[in-house]
């Protein structure tokens, strides 16, 4: 591995212009694919679930409604000014103006059905008891994934005009589902903070910019390719957002590690081509295996057997692969282009970070304190993380993916009509097996109405031949709550008795039921998925470090940090502690499992980056306990600065996404940022060196029979020692010197 990557680094360094041109062409080609992009599609279906079966009943018995669930729809709620009701003449005039504006929207289905609910008997149920709130419902002839952005803008303009005239108007609904979250502001903040961190790390403006440039190319290519891929695959807009988030973080991370190693190698030779090759051969080996663990975790999301989760995993994995390739090829080409100017524009007053081993440093002082009292450090840190993890026991999963812009409408609807009005359930009934369908449908509606958690049940709507019916149920709780999920389960629990007695089958369809099924499926997949990725990554780390204790420390440390991350996220977003979230609610159902995927991969990154140098020092020593403990100190001293810098970059990038209005982005941004704090600064910086010190040489124990069957990947670069500035250099590594 090290030899192959060494040759690749030397090749990229020597043929820098060709490599950089290839990357520019690749970026241009990826950007060109966006011209064929199709709108994003949100597919929350769970194969084989109750909601999918109910949808099949609905499609069979009501073919005229087939595809209607995908039509763009909205609920527009309007509120009278303070101290007034909607019945006043001036407010009735404002309502008329709002209704006319809504009717004038393009591609609106049945615009004549959009009427003032105060003036129609059938609209009485859409007016609150205190006459201060009312709502109308709109449906477009276009599916929500194909609706034009201009149509959404026109819709929002009508609402804004009404609010400006004194009648507050807010909206929520699937019409907004295909809107792509603009993450440019968050990405800019993340890149800006990352630049500051790397200036501090390298004490050079030029060196600090190299990971940024590499990341811009990598993320630009990934996002462009994924956007263009919508022409071939259905893809949710969250895929792009999360791929961008992870792509920025790992691109900067991997480049930072290689540049740091390159600076170290420059002190050992004046042959810059050889230094670049060694940096890619050693640090690049760590990057490959670190990236491999991230990809394993992300592709492993396929085990959930859900289209949404699989696509989220595949898209993020692509961004990681591009980041790895960019770090191994584009970065050494940039180093070759700059030569020794790669560390130009020094910043006075900052440490270079490449001082000799004998020099003191913050990292060396820190690890020696840990090594002096390893038991105290281990117990105190573990106890602190354990306390933080306690709220995780109350974890609840929901599926409220409404953005912050839709929350005002949801709050007004809940205030005037109950929380369930935005999460209505549709019971699809197959009455082919009964001789008295109408009576059975009424009995079923009555039975549902007697269940806890039901606000209202509409009379059954029959199809033409009376072999099918739809019963609309309004819960008394919101769509993302446990209470609504329990109601879905209770309704389904009635089927057996009706099937045995009356010969009818039914199911709960609609988006709320689908979200409920997804939450249940993802909750059940948490433990199997965690076991899968931890098991596979354990094997990878055992191969890398040729040790059993080191992979065990890595995985147990991750389990502790993920528990603390869940605890902190539940406390802030679900329980509303510290007042950081205005509307606490259950976590979005796919956040925990996706969080495991990303955090596990990144945690293994830091384990590989930090412990590789320890392994390298130990492999060159006598193999005693004292030498093993000293290797921990020396390896930590070399790796701590770059790992700390990388962790700060990660935290900055992820935390910037908390600024976005998108619920998924905010939750994931916070969870990933706090998870990085726990894992990088507590697990990898305290618990790992403490345990490695306590174990001594036993940290590198590997049974001889396993040692014989494992291939030697040489991540510490032992085979590179034969490559010096002599004729033994391979052709691609001909000495390249730059002034």
Automatic annotation (TrEMBL):
Q: Where is the SSD domain?
A: 204-337
> Is-annotated flag, keyword Nucleus?
no
Q: Where in the cell is it found?
A: Cell membrane
TM stretches of this protein: 189-208, 215-233, 239-259, 280-304, 316-338, 375-393, 520-545, 552-574, 586-606, 639-660, 672-695
Which keywords annotate this record? Answer: Cell membrane, Membrane, Signal, Transmembrane, Transmembrane helix
Q: Which domain of life is it from?
A: Bacteria
Look up and give the membrane topology term.
Answer: Multi-pass membrane protein
Look up keyword Transmembrane helix and say if it applies. yes
InterPro entries listed in its UniProt record: MMPL_dom (IPR004869), Mycobact_MmpL (IPR050545), SSD (IPR000731)
One Pfam family from the record: MMPL
Query: What residue stretch is flagged as signal peptide?
Result: 1-36
Name of the protein in question: MMPL family transporter
